[in-house]
Amino acid sequence: MEARTLNNVSAMPAPTWHWLHMNDATVEVPEGLDAASDFAIDVAEGTAGAFDAAMAAAQEAWDAEHEGYEYQRNYTDEQAEKLGGTSLSAYQQGVDEVEASKDLARMFDMGMGGDATAYLREVAGTARVIEAKRGEHASASVRIAGLDGHANVAALDIVAAADSELDVCITVDSPTPGTGLTGSTIRVFAGDNAKVTITRVQTLDDSWIDLDDMGLFLGNQADVQINQTVLGAGKTYTGLAGDLRGTAANANVVTRYLGHGDQKIDFNYTLRHHGRKTTCDLYANGVLAGTSTKTLRGTIDLIRGAKGAEGKETDNVLLVDEGVHNKTVPTILCNEDDVMGNHGATIGHIRKEQMFYMASRGLSQKQAEAMFVSASLEDAYIEAPNDATREAVVRLGNKLVDGFGELVEDNEEELA
Amino acid sequence: MSEKKRTQVDDIDRSMYDFHYDESDQEHLEAGLTPEIVREISEKKDEPEWMLEHRLKSLEIYNKFPEPDWGPSIEGLDMDNIVTYVKPPTEQQASWDDVPDDIKNTFDRLGIPEAEKSYLAGVGAQYDSELVYHSMQDSAAQMGIVYSGIEEALHDEKYEGLIHDHFMKLITPSDHKFAALHGAVWSGGSFVYVPKGTKLDYPLQSYFRLNAKGAGQFEHTLIIVEDDASLHFIEGCSAPKYNVANLHAGAVELFVGKNAHLRYSTIENWSKNMYNLNTKRATVQEGGDIEWISGSFGSHVGYLYPMSILNGRKARASFNGITFAGAGQNLDTGCKVVLNAPETSASVETKSISKDGGVSTFRSSIVATPKAEDSAASVSCQSLMLDDRSRSDTIPAMDIRCKNIDVGHEATIGRIGNDKVFYLMSRGMSEEEARTMIVNGFADPVSKELPLEYAVEMNNLIKLEMEGAIG
User: Do A212 and A269 fall into the same domain?
Assistant: First the structure.
């Protein structure tokens, strides 16, 4: 395949100044990669078309529940004419237009969007379906490996019917260097009262590019937990969008990352609250070392009608080396008064009181910084979903921290 | 249980600003924006050649820039219909007695001469495109402080060089489309020079009044505060309401020297047909500090983000702002800070209130360059939604390129929490008193930083009438 430039990837819904270069990402796909969709999955294929069928059923249920409902725009046509235009920004006008359509499929977004989602779908072909039927508790593991000279992408539809529980673990790994790209593009449907947990751990060698694209739909009281760990790959792009449609739906997204070398890490999260009393928590915690760069765009969008909704987002970044570069833009968009939106970010070095404590225990600043990098890896090791992932974390850890493998072994022995 | 009612917050009462006088005796240039119009403005002002070249170059840049695609729509602003220069029927005067009656009455009604007598060290008053009055107390002049019209200074050989070296050097025409527009058609504005070690105890104030229908105002404020000097400058602005678009695209450039202090306070009250596309920027040297106090209440559309560039070790910036967006308003406000030296610090605290379908956006950027080791910045923004027809967005960006830094950000959006009301009621207040106190207290961080008279004016602007509970 020819080299491709994917534009407008992981774009913020409401952009800011262009000079900050934060509004979106551009992904350069290397020339000569063959398309592949070669991944291991340990469950039987689910029902073909399950995702689209679930969305159609959700639309039907929503229409029945909202008979006669009309979305209330910020301006009536009459007001707009009087004012010589609405004065709404392109994003604000776009929200009015999409919401007025009452079309749930149109409102369902993928986190990377645009060129990237199209590319990943093109490479992966038809999506595999992982399904939990009503009342079932199912789990699945997916392993995606870097294939030298390939763009290897998994397309998945994860469908949890009402009252079901579904755990999916995705590991993305390649211990050896190679020229290529790995990726996943995942649509998630969590029906009423469904509980879905998706854990994705990426431990690729630094020579790879990884694209992680996800879109969520949550029904009434659905509960979705997303755990993402990004440790490897020279360039990582993660995009997640979610529609909290049902009443009291909840989405938690926990992101852990360790930037090192000259890695480039890009996160984009957009969670839209449509349902009443919906809640979300976007939590990112990471360490940047070497000359690594990280961008995090987090958007909580409280749509008119989402009464009682609460959204929270946090980004804690520890900077340990002089060449690091961190960009964070935690956005809250709010078109409803009976809501609560909070966001916070702390970006910086080891705090003075922490450093003082460590110095009093005989640690130099360098040792203290190494300890935070090590702690980040240990955290990933502890949270790893299986032995293969733990091994991958140790492999990466040994490259970054002297004796990391022995350290975790000692810790395990102590715990035992 | 009695029915809960929403807190009623009156819209801004603009009646004190909403009057205008006949403009037939004023000189209007043709509407639109052409090189000929730009040349005509320059010719009328008998400017040096470099300024004409600057204007024409700015016009070229303006024509190349696209309109912003990230903020409020400015589709209702048609530059072909905007008159960029309207000259009042008087030259600049040093006594209110010499100002024509209509114009003097305008400023009387706005309380400017009274304020001058009571607590200001100097006043500049601009009516449409030109200053009509400028005066400063003798005591300030004796300290070596210069406060004059910027065009007056440009024609004074003592200051022309200073103006040449500073004018549109901080805000260049290539910054954005409306900075370029300003560079092309700017007219009027103030020049302040505070010499080294001079501290002025009373504020200076410039007031900008746009009276003409369908006109633009493009004043330029240039302030130089030398090392160890101190100044408080107040900017006020208002206009009557018309049924066509008016435009304000001023520029404020502030140069703060080593260990110098500048407080720049603004209460913006443009009418609801105004497109306020204003640019403000300060550069601060070692140990100096800039304080921005900003109240944005008027305008149909606002784009306003005062920027602080901290270029010297231990330079500081603080920004306290409040924005009130009512019916028909889309106010996109906030600030920008660049930490560009070691041990710099910035503090940003903003409040916004949206009601009656008003749209308020807080937009900010904190940029720390690799030079900003051992620096710190904190940003806090709170937005209050008073009904479910309004909108409030918060888009803060942080771009950090150094290691030893501490950047904190927090924001909340929502309505008044019942827990806060409950707490105050447990301390013996009635529910109504509790809610009144919470809403009134919301604007406190800004109003307490203003001189008393301005704080009173601001509190009058946010006239709060409490009725029952919020809910």
Answer: yes
Cβ(A182)–Cβ(A211) below 8 Å: yes
B272-291 mean pLDDT:
96
Nearest C-alpha of chain A: how many angstroms from B5? 13
Domain final residue pick, B380, B395, B415: B415
CB contact under 8 A, A14 and B410: no
Contact of A266 with A257, CB cutoff 8 Å: no
Do residues A223 and A328 share a domain? yes
For residue A251, being part of any structural domain is answered with yes
What's the mean pLDDT in A232-246? Answer: 97
How many helices (H) and strands (E) in chain B?
12, 27
- pLDDT of B467: 34
* Within a domain: B212: yes
| Phi and psi torsions of B439, nearest 5° | -70, -45
User: pLDDT grade, residue B452 (50/70/90)?
Assistant: low
pLDDT on residue B326: 85
Mean pLDDT for all residues in chain A: 92
B4, B5, B70: best mutation site toward chain A, by most A Cβ within 10 Å? Answer: B70
Same domain, A301 and A380: no
**Residue that is last in its domain, among B415, B431, B454:** B415
- Residues 6 or more apart whose CB falls under 8 angstroms from that of B158 comprise none
Q: What is the pLDDT of residue A300?
A: 97
Q: Are residues A285 and A328 in the same domain?
A: yes
Confidence at residue B11, expressed as pLDDT on a 0 to 100 scale:
53
B292 lies in some domain: yes
Task: Say what the alpha-carbon torsion angle A256, A257, A258, A261 is, to the nearest 10 degrees.
Answer: 170
Q: What are phi and psi of B450, to 5 degrees?
A: -95, 155
What is the H or E stretch that residue B410 is in? Answer: strand B405-414
If asked whether residues B254 and B157 sit together in one domain, one would say yes
User: Residue B12: what pLDDT?
Assistant: 53
| C-beta separation of B235 from B205 below 8 A | yes
Give residue A388's domain range. Answer: 353-416
Domain that holds residue B460: 416-471
pLDDT value for B450: 67
- Tell whether A61 is covered by a domain: no
Q: How far is it between the farthest Cα atoms of chain A?
A: 74
B9 falls within a domain: no
Inside any domain, residue B5: no
Tens of pLDDT, residue by residue over A133-186, are 999 999 999 999 999 999 999 999 999 999 999 999 999 999 888 899 999 999
Give me the residues paired with residue A36 across strands. Answer: A152
Residue A144 has, within 13 A of its CA and on its CB side, a CA count of 30
Instruction: List CB contacts (< 8 A) between B75 and chain A.
Output: 84-85, 87
Give the total residue count for chain B.
471
The answer to which of A64-68, A74-78, B129-133, B152-156 has the lowest mean pLDDT is: A74-78
Which secondary structure element, helix H or strand E, spans residue B115, and what is its range? Answer: helix B112-119
Whether A341 is in a domain gets the answer yes
Decide: B205 and B236 in contact? Cβ < 8 Å.
yes
Q: Is the Cα dihedral A201, A206, A207, A210 positive or negative? A: positive
Contact residues, chain A, for B360 at CB < 8 Å:
none
- Whether residue A60 lies inside any domain: the answer is no
Using a CB–CB cutoff of 8 Å, tell me whether A286 touches chain B: no
Structure confidence at residue A24 (pLDDT): 97
- Is a pLDDT exceeding 70 seen at residue B459? no
Question: What type of residue is B240?
Answer: P
**Tens digit of each residue's pLDDT (9 = 90 or more) over B375-402:** 999 999 888 887 888 899 999 999 999 9
Distance CA B52, CA B48 (A): 7
Chain A residue whose CA is closest to B369: A325
pTM of the model: 0.92
The residue of chain B with its CA nearest to that of A71 is B389
Question: With left for phi above 0 and alpha for psi between -120 and 50, is residue A308 left, alpha or beta?
Answer: left
| Residues B231 and B94 occupy one common structural domain | yes
